[in-house]
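Bumping with the actual sequence this time:
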Amino acid sequence: MEIILLERIAKLGQMGDVVRVRDGHARNFLLPAGKALRATDANKARFENDKAHLEARNLEARKEAEGVAEKLDGQNFVVIRSAGETGQLYGSAAARDIVEVVEAGGFSVARQQVRLDRPIKTIGLHDVQIDLHPEVSVSISLNVARSDDEAERQARGEDLTRRGAFDEQEVEEAPDLAEVFENPEDAEHAAEVAEAGDVEADANTESPEGNSEAEASEAGAETETTT
């Protein structure tokens, strides 16, 4: 189908251009959204009559979008979602979720303005493009995390999508044995038991040859005694 563009549309053309598009794209999106007209002789004449008004309206809308872009471009937004160990979301973050978090931050955007090829399905930092106007686009950062604490860590550059990733702070804050046991002697005994366990584990990991020699020596000693 041939249409007349009433505004700039990426990959199609500028306002006033007559272009050919798929019938479904025209009927389901461009025509209902008021972004184009069928390229009939009557509509071509109509466009020429309304051209000055359309250009003035477009200029006003672009200036308004540029004002919003100055504040919105580069902004960071946090989205809290449940996810597994590897960072795979139990669900996804879609365009409507982005609209909600951006609006919560004080900006007004439409779902159609969010350019998202596919839903976000993992935690992490994701760049998302917002088309405020056919000629004005900005990029925002979406910090998808399982908690506010994880969002802060991701903002600092940590990768939490690794299997088994854990909070180093929890390790640093692990209590001392002396704090666990009220009696110092109990704490000392617990430490000795732990150390003995480590020594025994090391002994069990000696080479098979060493163990065989020790067993042979013991067997020889028993033979001499018997004789």
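The tokens above came from a reply further down the thread. DSSP finds eight helices and nine strands in the chain.
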